[in-house]
Each structure stands twice: as C-alpha cells, then as structure tokens.
Structures
1.
Amino acid sequence: MFAPTYLDWNATSPLDPAVREAMLPWLDARFGNASSRHEYGRQARAAIDEARAQVAAAVGAHATEVVFTSGGSEANNLFIKGAAACRKPGLIAVSAIEHPCVREPAKQLARAGWTLREIAVDGAGRIDATDWADVLQARPAIVSAMLANNETGVLQPIDRLAPEASGAGAWFHSDAVQALGKMPLDFRKLGVHGMTLSAHKIGGPLGAGALVLDKRVELAPLIAGGGQERGLRSGTENVAAIIGFGVACELAAARMAAEAKRLADLRGQLEVSLRDLGARIFSGDAERLPNTSFFAIEGIDGETLVGKLDRAGFACASGSACSSANPEPSHTLTAMGVAPDLARNALRVSLGRDTRADDIERFAAGLTRQVKELRQLAAIAV
Amino acid sequence: MLKFPIYLDYSATTPVDPRVAEKMIPWLTEHFGNPASRSHAYGWEAEKAVEDAREEVAALVGADSREIIWTSGATESNNLAIKGAAQFYKGKGKHIITLKTEHKAVLDTVRELERQGFEATYLDVQENGLVDLDALKAAIRPDTIVISVMMVNNEIGVVQPIAEIGELCRDKGIVFHVDAAQATGKVAIDLNTLKVDLMSFSAHKTYGPKGVGALYVRRKPRVRLEAQMHGGGHERGLRSGTLATHQIVGMGEAFRIAREEMQAENERIRMLRDRLMDGFKDMEAVYVNGDIEHRVPHNLNISFAYVEGESLIMAIKDVAVSSGSACTSASLEPSYVLRALGRNDELAHSSIRFTIGRFTTVEEIDYTIDLLRKRIGKLRELSPLWEMVQEGVDLDTVQWAAH
C-alpha cells in the first residue's frame, strides 16, 4: 500500500502497537460485560479500574475523578450541559477559539436561558487580559477555555485563569484533548473543576475519552441508564478502548519529556523552511504545543495546497478535521483578527511519534515545490 | 473439552466473532484516519469503511443507510431517541408511555424527562411479560407524543407485538421508539413494514464490539430529533464526535453475519435452549418466567423455588449466568422485570437467566443441566422451607413469627 507521510496528528494518531497488543485480548477471550458479577465480568471490571488509575496518574488526578466517555466531544458536552443543569441559568463564558464540541453545547445553553459570552483572544490566540477581567466582573457560572488549541497549538495559562474564575464563583472547565501527552498536565495544579481528555490523539483508540472531574462539582448525566461511571455516564463500558486509553496514557507520560523536545526540534527545522517561503506562522511567538505548526502563505489558497500536497504524498490539513467540510475560514484565526483572505490560506502540519527528520526534509522540499508551481501559475494568470 | 466458566450470559454481552475482530484489526493498524478528515486518503478510506458498515446495519433491518446514525451504544441511542423526540415535539404534547419492564436506559431516560416537566405512564405488562394492547390503547392521551416499547426483553426474552403497536402509533401520530438492542440477529426486523420511527441497536449484543451502537431515524414519514451531543456536526448534526472507525466496521461486519446466519443459528440455539429447559422439566417447583411462545430462542429465565438465586449462582461458579440484567446486577433488589410479571419476591429472588449464543455447545448445556440439578438438590436439602413443603405444609398459611 502506498502510505502518504502522515502530518495530521492533531486530527487523530495511529494506534501505538503496544496499545493494540493490550487491547486485543479484550476483543477476544476477555469479552465480559464489566457489570456482570461472574468471572468474565470481574475480569473486565478489574482491567477498567487499572486503566482508570493509569489515566489518573498521567494527569495528576485521583482514579475516582476519572469518568470514562466515548470521547472528547462527549466529555465536553457532559461538563457544560451537566454543570448547567445543576446551576441556575446565568453567564457561560467560553474562549473564542474553542473546539465546536465546546462552542456548540454552550450555544445550546444560550437557547435555554443562559447568556453566552465569548472571551476574546489577542493576535497570538491567547486570552485577552482586558476582556478576561471584564468577564470575571460579570460573575460567570461556567467558564471553559482549552489548554492547547487544536489548530495553532497555542497554550492558555490555565493554572492562572482557573483559580481566578473559581474565585469569581465559576466552575472552570478546560478541554485538554490536544495537550495530553504533549506537555505536562497536572489536574490539581491547574485548579480546574473539569478537564477533557481523548485517547485517539495520543496513540490510543478512537472511541474512548474521559472527563476528569473534581468531586465537589455536581453534574447531571448526559446519558441515563444502568448507572455506570458513578451514574455520570450510563452504558456498557467499552472495555477494549478503555484498556487502550490507559496504556496510551502511561506510554505518553513516560515518553513525553523526550518526545516534546524531539518534536519541537523537528518543528523548528520545518519552520525555517516555512519562513524562507515567506509564511506567516500563527501563534508563532506564543507558547505553543511542540508538534503543531499552523501557517499561511500569501497568495496560496490553503485547500488547493493541501490537495496538491496530498497528491504528492503528504497528509496534512487546512484546519481541524471536524470543520474540514466547511469552507468558512478557521474561527480560531478569525478570532485572532487574521484577515479572511489570509485565513483561507491556512495549512496545519502536526507531527507525532512516527515523524522523522527526513519526513520534514521531504515535506519542506515538497511544499517549496508546490508553492513555486502555484506562484508560477498565479504569475501566468496575471 | 469444556472451557470454564461456561458462558451462558449472552444477553449481557457476546464475544466478538473472530471474523468481526479480523475485519476490525486493519482499522487498528495501518488504516487509522479520522473519517472526518477531508484532505487526505487516510480520512477518505476511513469514511468509506464507515459508509460500507452503515449499509450493512441498514440491510439487516430493512432500512435505508441514510436512516442510520452511529452512537456509542444502545444506551446512548435510547437517550437520543426518547429525549430527542420528546424535546423536539414538546409543542405537541408532554406525555410519554413506556413499559415497566423496559431496560434502565429507557426507564431512567423517561424519569429524567419527567423531571424536565414531561409526564409518563409506565404500563404494567401481563403475567407472560407481554404488553396488553388494550391497556396501551387506553393509556394513550391526546397529548401523548412518544411511546417506547422494547422489541425483546433483556431478562425474559419475550418479543413484544411491535407491528401492532406501530399501527396504533401511526394512526395517532405518536412517535414510536423501539429498543432493539436484544433483537438483532435473534428476530427478523423489517423496517419497511414495521411502523417504527426510531429504533436502537447495539453491536456488542450481536457479536460486535462494545462502544458502538446505532439509532434508526425514519425518513418517510420523517421523524425529527433534538441532538443530545453537540460539536463538529457529525452524523448530520444528530450526534457529534469523531467516529470510531474500527468499532463501526466491527458493527457492520457483525450485522452482516447476523443477516446471513441468523436463520440457521436460531434453529440450533432453539434446540439448545429446549434441551436446557427439558433438563429441568421433571424437577419440582420450577417456573419459566415469561411467555415461551413469543420469545427469542436464546433465553431461558427460570425460577427454582426455595433456592436463593444468589446462593445458586455462587454454587454454580463453573457456569457464568446472571440473576437479572448486568446493568442491575450490582443491586440485591429482586428483578423489577420479574416483579412486573407478578412474581413474588421469593420467586424473583430465585431466578436465573440463561442466555445461549453462537458459541454454546451441546456439551456445555448438558454439563449445565447436570450441575444445576445437583446443586439445586443440595441447596434445597439445606432449606427449611423446602423441608416444610415436602412435609405437605402450605407455606401461604404459615404464621411467621416476627423478629
């Protein structure tokens, strides 16, 4: 099979072989329902408990604070809607660069008597200090701000924002889906009430995620039924995926320091070439995830470039996968004040475990060639 | 060679069929794309696999693939169907009807809607576990908007008259939801003829993986829902969240196998179930719970009077069975399903659910019969109540001393 070079790790990541090995018995002889009290069930229950401890350990939480869900989207929905159901309608504030699975639930609250406010970001995508102070003045009941943005990789100072929001009476949630495995995460130190994680961004399987939840926060479940996950998430546990998630967390935590440095170096190498092409690197001067580069080249349409790169054997993205059917420019860039014309040129390259220096070299050469061709075409058209 | 413990709890979950696992594994290795990625081949091939699986699920139940919405499982499907329809049609009315014997995923969802201001009727069933259609008709109010009735009961395996209820609902313009988690691969489902608007499916009860299910949402006449999970707008906006390709592929393959093999398989399973039932027929004070005709061949739910179910389960560790559904097995309450049939607490407490499946063998059934007979004999020997019955005492007339 012809395998394009995969440079879209923020969309999803290939399953780590060690994770796959850990999962396979649970798709085979160990098939019990974790709620069954016979040996098949008890075996599954014990394995889920172990995975819960692994996930908790990777993020500095207690195992009983981990609520397994079907993924990051569900965890974000659970916190926002679940918290809203337990509080009197008031103000919900979410950053202007959130993933749709935070923005959309927040919009739903706005239909149910809540006031929705977006927290402005500066040109680098960081929460704007003046607007933040203003939001706190308004005494929000729920605040959600992502730790690391899926497109630019920009980081928010959650360990500072969360206590401030709590002090103002809010329950603070952070979507840490893109941060997990790429930077140190400590639930306690961040001081958040809820934090969303996903398995498939860190070499774990699709179909598993978690909400890490401070027990002082009361949530109404999104999915009612058998009462699994302390009543917060009913439904037969996806044992194999949960086991995979646990192992993936353990591996990610163990490798993170070395891997973060390696990826940052590779990205540095890539961005030298990008600057040579005259690219604007979004959030380039801010603190970012080490693996992500989101950039635009004047006069080169992002969709066109992504298509040409795909045919040349490089899989990358013009933005987040979830909105890749959407022709609108990235809402993250719009919120950062990037002009629509430049935002439409955006291209996201995200690196991961399998990315090597020669992948970056080949990609940089391929990109340079495609950009030259497109520029020549543009020159002819003029 | 028998492998212990013998698994007779197929209604709690089924093993993944090896053919299903084989089909899933490539999607756990080289084909890892996000089906929503539109900019490269990894995404496209994942999207195609998801659409092929959707066709297979639709084919088993006589639906159009555009009517199939992926979810994380039947519990989510039930929540989405009932809350989604109730919230969408709340302008038309606020009354919901369901059965007392439904799965918790339906009952708790309806209870949640009651807290939101809806009203609910939880209908009794007949002694055989089947709904009384006249009682259902009588329960319908002008403001009834949703009726939810399961196709196959998870504890006693009885099959409800879905076709008749469908006619009734269509006549009255009521949205009809059916939890079919226990039905796929066990009874034929044809949504071309059944007047069902919403139907919930699970993969892991039909030899597919855990963590994936589907909701059928009828297009003609069109049924509308309020989404319960918001985000990237996957599944036509009805269910956001990255699709788990390998799981979906597994569900598709599991449903394909079910379509092709269910007829032959069910005959074999019926033979095994009847053999199991015959094995107990000369025993005293043994009662089958639920109608035996209108029932899937996989299920045998029996009460062995004067034997406490939990003690019996402990005494037959070589056989993995349950005394009720897995979801309620942590509680020591007697099964609410058996209580709804009018069984008293003692009989409900002495029940065992045997559920038979694809990998059950004759040897396993024979071993189980033999073991059960021996252990029940032992436990009854220890039971003072059994002794009294043997001596001809009518326990109903005994005045028990309070203590």
2.
Amino acid sequence: MRKIFILSSFILIILISIVGSNAVTGYNYSHKGEPIHSSLGLTTANDGIFTVVSDGWSRIDASKFTSPEDMYIYTEIDDEGTEKDIIYIVDSSSSLLYVFDENLNLKSGSNGIISKFEVRPENFTQEQYMKVKTRSDTSSVTLNSRVNWTKFYSAILTPEPVRTEAQRVYLELNGVSGVYRAKRPARAEDGTIIKGEYQDLLYLSDKGNNQIVIVDATDYHVVQVVSQPTDITFSGKTFAPMKLVTDSTGRIFVISEGVYEGIMQMSYYGKFMSYIGVNYAKLTAWETFWRRFSTDIQLSQKDSILNTEFKNMAIDSKNFIYTVSRATTDSNDIVDNSAMIKKINPSGNDTLTKNGYSNPVGDVVTINVGTNLLLRGPSRFTGVAVNSYGIYTVSDEKSGRLFSYDDEGNLLYISAESGPELGNLNNPVAIRYQGENILVLDKFSKAVIRFKPTDIAKVINRAVKYQYNGQLKEAAEEWKNVVSENPNYELAYVGIGKSLLNDGRYEDAMAFFQIGFNQTYYSRAYKSYRDQVIKENFPIVISMSAFAIVLLYGRGAFEKKRKKFMIKLAGDK
Amino acid sequence: MKQNIMDNKVVRYLLITYEKIKKFFNFIVEEGIRFPVYILFHPFKGFDEFKREKRAKPSIAIAFVVIFILLQIISFQYEGFMVNQNDISDLNTFAQITYVLVPILVLAFGNWSITTLFDGKGTIKEILMLISYSLFPMIITQFFALFLSNMIAQEEIGLYSLVLSVGVFATGYMVFVGLVSIHEYGVLKCIITIVFTIVAALVILFIALLGFDLFRKIYGFVYTIYREIALRYF
C-alpha cells in the first residue's frame, strides 16, 4: 500500500512538472480600447541581457560606456552568400563606436572599439576641409586648427599605403548620438551613377561637432562630412544631428535636435533639400482669433506652442520611413496623440494605415491626472523598428513597453515593462529587429536586451506574414492556432473571417467578423451574403409577384368585361 | 324543451369576453394609433381634442413610455452589428429605464414650473401626457430602424440614421405644437418658455446632484460613527 502511494505521488509530481502552467500573462487592448488579459509577445531570458559584465564585453571600460545612444544592426552578406549580423553601438559621453558580432561579442583587436577616424587628403577639397570639426577634450574645434590645410595636403605626396603615422590626420567624434550603415550607389566625379558599384558606408551623427561623419564601413576612413547647412531656410538654427537613416539612392534623412520643422532631407552630397513629415501643432479657431488681438507682452507670457520634434526613425526596404514623436499639447492642455507614429513615403507624406481597433498610440488608456508627471499623459516613444513583413515595434519610455503593430495598424502584442530588474526597460533608446528577435538598447541600465518571441507570438508573426503576402488560407490556419491558445485575441477571428470570405462562405465569415468586431469586413461579407440570398430567391419572388399582379389586374379587367356584358345583356332585353 | 343557445352561461360568458376583447382592441387602435397619427398630421385640431375634449388617456401615455423603454432595451441587443457594437453584458435595464424616465420627468416638471409663471394653461398631467404622446413617432421609426439595421451594409447607415432622425424631428414637432396648444401660447412665447424650461431642468438637476452629494456625506458620516462605535466597543 505504502509503495503504491509513493509511486502514485511520484507519478503525480512528474505529471505536474510536465504539464506545469507557466503562461505569463500580459495585456492587450480590446475592440473597445479597454485593457484585457492577453499573452506576452516578447520575453527576455538571462542569456539575453548584455552589459559590461558580460563575457564578450570584457574589453569595454565601464566608465566609457555610460550613455549609449544608438544601436544599429547591419546584415553583411559575404561572397558565399552567408548572412552575418554586425552590431554597432555608439556612446555619447566617450564618443566611441563599439562593434559587435551577431551574438554581441566585441570584435577582436582594434576592430572592436573605434575612437578616431582617418581623414585622407585625397577625399577633401580645401573648402570641405575647413568645415570639418573634431573634438579637443570635451569641446569642438575645427580640424584646420589642429592640422592646417597645407600640412594636411602635403601628405598626398606620399601614397596612402606607405604613409607614416605622423602624416595621418584623425577626426574624433564629440557626443555621437546616432549610427547607421547602408550601401549607396557609387557616383563618378560628374555625379553620374556607376552601375553595379556600391559604397558601403557607416553614418555617424556627430552631434557635438554639428556634423554627420560618413566613414567607410571596412577601414573607417572618413569619406564625407556633412556640415551645418548654409541654406537660407536653416539660418539661425544649430545643426545637431540625433538620428539618421538613408534611402536606397543615398539621400540622408536627419532628425536634428531643436529643429521643429520636421525631418531634414539631404541629398547624396549632404546638401539640405527640404523638411518632410512636419508635426504641426494645431490651434483652434478661437485661439487664432484671441492671439490676433493679444499684445506681444501677452503672447510672451503664454506658453509657446511648438511642433513636436521627432524622436527616432527607421526605414524599411521600400524606403518608407517610420518615425516616432511625442504627442502635441495645445495651450488648453488638449493632447493630440494621433500622429505619434508616422510612416512617411518617399514624397514626404504620412501614409500610416490605421485600421486597428484603436489608433497606434501605444497605451490607449492612460493616466491623465496626478502630480507624477512621469506617469501622466500618452506614451512617450523613443524608438521604432520595422521588420521585413511590415510589423513595426515601438518602444515606450514611459511604461518601458514594446508595442508591436502589423502593417494594417493592428496592435499585435505588448511586451516588456519598466522596473528595477536587469531585463526591464527604463529608458530604451534604440530598438532593432534581428531576424525575429528584437534587440533593445537601454540607456538606464546600459545594457542590450534581446527579446525573443513567445510561442504564441511566433504563430501570430507567421499569420501576419502570410496575410502580408496575401496567403489568406495559410494565415487562417495560424489564426486558428492563436485562438485555441488565447480566445481573447480578437484580431485572429478577423483573420479567419477573411479566409472564409475569400472562400465565399459569407454567413460564416459574418459571424467571425462580428466576434472580431470588424465592421468594414462584416459589411463586405454581408453585402455578398445579401446578394446571394436575393439571387437565390429572385425567380420565386418575381414569379409570385407577377402572378399576384396578373390576378389583381385580371380580376378587375374581368369584372369590367362582365359588367359590360351584363349591361349589354340588359340593353338587349 | 328547446333552450335558447344564448341562455347558456358559458356561451354568454364567451360572447361577453369576445365583446370586451374587441372593445379593447378597438380602443387601442383608436386611441393608441389613430389618435396620435391624427395629432401628427392635424396638430392644432388634434391637440384641441387632446385638451378640451379630454381625449388623452393616461393609460395610453404610460403605455407609450413603457413601450419606448422596452424598445430601447430590445434595440440594445437586437440592432444590427453595423450600427450597434454594444456588448450584451453591458446592458443595464435600470440604466435604460432612467435614461428614458429622467429626461421626461425633469423636462416636464421644468416646463410646468416655468409655464405656471408665464400664464400657461396646461397642467402637469397634460404636459406629461403630451410628452409621452409625442414619443409615438419615435417609437414607430425606432421599430422600423430595428429591422432596417439588420439589413444594411456600411454604406447604407445613412438611411438608418435618416429614419431615426425623421422620428426625432416629428417628436420635436409634436412637442412644440403641443406646448403651444395646451398652454394657449403664441409661437414666440413658446420658444422663450422652452429656453427657460432647459434652464429650469438644469437647475433641477443641479439641486438633485447637491441633494445626492449631501445624502452621501451624511451617509458617510453616520457610517463612520457606526464603524467607530463598532470597532471601539464591540
């Protein structure tokens, strides 16, 4: 008896440990915009947190990694076609560039930490050289004051490979706050594009020196320096580049600190062209009226109404720029959070699709009262990343969360949170997709945190991918798996409904769209269903009504004839 | 012995009941449908009958309010998905009742308190009956809209709201003409009293809120004393 008892309890323990529910619950927003329980999208594990104490980071001095500002992941494809990620992190206080491999191990030797970038005389004219700035201790000076032009230019007499170290001139960054790497088509002297030839470049926004430094991605010599624009529309402003991206033709898009007109669009050669994607602050008619009659002194006492500046951006493979910015607040404290995320097309207009239950604004329900300003108001986005099939994820510094949306604007899942633990996000400054995973650079904990999709998030991602490619049937299969895991997931019902609609099963589709609360698709399914019903019953209804008309009219006609006949008969008598 | 069939008790009872039922339905058709329709299309003559000949029946008035409340509740659940995203678990019957009753009562009493000062000839009973009789067009249109809402696509929502707004407009029209008639006012004076009615309604609501708050405070005070005593001595 005792044996049986021990044996059965042993089996029970094993069963419990196998079945064991370890589902972590997160939340999502329902069709009404109310928070409901949902599954977490991305989670992090202990082996996904990288800081200065990590194995691969042993050569990084903790005092020189105090304010990491930006991170970029570039996928290198070598001659054999194998893909390899290379990860760049810049630190603004030490102005160093750290280079990691795909597992966040610092590159060996001098390839790991880059502190200075060679400036070669053959790449610069005198005019360009005079504008280049470098760092001296903590302040910014022109490179010419260090090494004057004639001395610099004399090095050209010695060919590059045999130049002595004394002959080489280096540029040091000052408060670097952005890094980006891309290929751009090479151009000849006269500006024509050389077909099939590309320049592999690393772009560094050198905020303290008011310039963008473009260096070669392999040996880090400076190729081009974009200085303060001399354009008339930029006069009186300081060029302090924060983040930048480039498109496939080599145009540079820059977010500059203190520039409220929008994103600066610069040409291949670094010439300022225009602002795009402006975040206008709106004034009500009453306010415009009132401001017209107030004196300058009155106006100066009011809070100035500024357009919000952009915080971060990312570019996808089709040259759409995803940007994040703060919500605008007008003088009546009315918050407008409708344009916090934008998808700017190549001609500069916002084309973000907002077909979700709520607009993509991060947290839909927010705290709007109370003295704690850190918790108040809408989400404050700091970073955005977009993957190959249209899912974009934004990081929110207020709540330390990551919000993932699909290309239609549906909120897919919410992950991470702020807190005192190492895996928590408190000040995410950069967020990038690495395949399915997401790497987040947290400035507060000075760490890179790798988030992996949970099992259900993987299924959701697959479904979205199928849907993105128009494979509705395969997507519906995945959505069914999502529903069986999480019946609260309303979006999945819409996905199943779309497939049914495509198959012509309108009535079933209607039921799914109703559960998924999608009116547009419900209406579409209903119209087809109505047409179907009318088509099926049309012959019966029409023949019945024709019969009825004939009967009614015929009776009247018959009566008339009968009466006439009777009168005639009477007349005959 | 030949017995007259009419002498049979059961048959007589049945016949009388039949007569009663027939009379009841005649009453409903006459007073509940024909008369409101008559008022709607001949408002001045209709309201003359309404007031002078005392044709307005309290029973019909109450029935209209009850039907209107029922329609609200039914609409909450059965209106088509295209225009109705209510979650059925959010349905609160008492809330629906108050949404209908409170505005009617507040406006009626507001109007009465103003019109007595402005030489209005209507009594509170007449005003209440006038408002509930005026619900008739809204009841009819909402009933149709209930069916219509289940047969429309997204582009046809305009049709649905047109039907509803016709009802609202007709109700407003009936109330306005009714007020002119039962108080024996001119149009301008009626408009002025309506404006003041709204003010009076706001005042009533304000006082009601004040009363509620006071009550809540007193309740809180008594409850705290009770807690204090209960925790200290028991």
